[in-house]
Request: fold
Amino acid sequence: MWNGIVLARYTEEGSDYSLYEEAEEILKTKFDHSNFIFTYTNFKESAVLSGIGTRAKNSLIYNRKFGFQSKICSFMFVSKIVNYPKVTPNKGLLDLCDGCEDCINNCPVNAIHEDWIDAKACDNHIGQGIKWFWYDKMQPDIPRKEVETWVSWETMPVLKWGQGVDGFYKMDGYQLKKDGKPIPMTHCRECVLQPRCSKAPILDENY
Reply:
């Protein structure tokens, strides 16, 4: 039974969650609010199964209209959806990745490999960007040499946010806010914007 819908929108910020509210408003115009709910699921798998994206060698989802710069969300309906378009999802690797190793060669921590991703190396590298952002904004009474020893999530203490040098910072779930407004997290951008990926440009405006 098919009773779900997957939506995608262009965004260059990994912390941009406005699509969720926008998508709900769009659905409200056509469906009774009680008939659908937002679902937290494996969005990559949802994108693949819905046919709106294909998994690339870097493990990200590539959309023919938005490239890698897409935010994905999904909703489930109580009733079965009828007259939905028939799609044949591509569960394999993105065809554009054939013979290309841009992401492998440009990953700063060698986390991307031909057939697997070193998730721990990736996560730890992201943690380094977050810790220095925290250190610069919060200016804690901690020696810089001590912070340099925090090389993985296991060695890092829980980062405490609050009044910083240029505003009030709060971690709301996975989203960082400054003075109540969401801001992008400082981290590795290679897998978010793919500046050195030759396949990142949008290929089909009408997709």
